[in-house]
Amino acid sequence: MTEPTADALGRFLTLTDVAEVLSLNAAEVLALVRSGELPAIRLGAIGQWRVEHAVLESFIADKYDESRRMALWNEAEYADVAELFGDQRRRSGGSST
């Protein structure tokens, strides 16, 4: 099955659309919205949630960045301190002439 394009879905997505894009269920997406992690707006008389397509793309990009930072942090946790500072540590630790 092909994934729907942004043009086909329109500017605003339902929570079901967002769930499909993120491979989650609607309850998980609702939890992200209610926690404030995924910005959304309520529209209509019964207050149906909508997520702007650009906001969803930004959310996904932020999650990629967060994952990258966590991977680097985990690598650094096990790295040698000298590797983190490179030549700077050796130069500043020597005698000053």
Question: What layout of secondary structure does this protein have?
Answer:
Elements (H helix, E strand, L loop, with lengths): L5 H4 L2 E2 L1 H8 L3 H10 L5 E3 L4 E5 H26 L2 H5 L1 H7 L4
Antiparallel strand pairs: 1-3, 2-3
Helical/strand content category: mainly alpha
Q: Roughly how many Å apart are the termini?
A: 69 Å
Oligomer: single chain
Average pLDDT rating: 82
Q: What is the overall shape?
A: elongated
Number of helices in the DSSP assignment: 6
Strand content: 5-15%
Radius of gyration in whole Å, from Cα? 22 Å
| Low confidence ranges | none
- Number of separate strands: 3
Helix content: 55-70%
Report strand order across the widest sheet. 1-3-2
**Biggest sheet architecture:** 3 strands, antiparallel
Element order: H for helix, E for strand: HEHHEEHHH
In short:
The protein is mainly alpha-helical. 62% of the residues lie in helices and 10% in strands. The longest helix is centred in the C-terminal third of the chain and has 26 residues.
Using brief descriptors, characterize the structure shown:
10% strand, 3-stranded antiparallel β-sheet, 6 helices, 62% helix, single chain, elongated
Describe this structure in words.
This protein has helices spanning 6-9, 15-22, 26-35, 53-78, 81-85, 87-93, and strands at 12-13, 41-43, 48-52. It has 97 residues and is mostly helical. A three-stranded antiparallel sheet has the order 1-3-2. Strand 2 (41-43) and strand 3 form a beta hairpin. Helix 2 crosses helix 3 (26-35). The N and C termini lie far apart (69 Å). The model has no long low-confidence stretch (mean pLDDT 82).
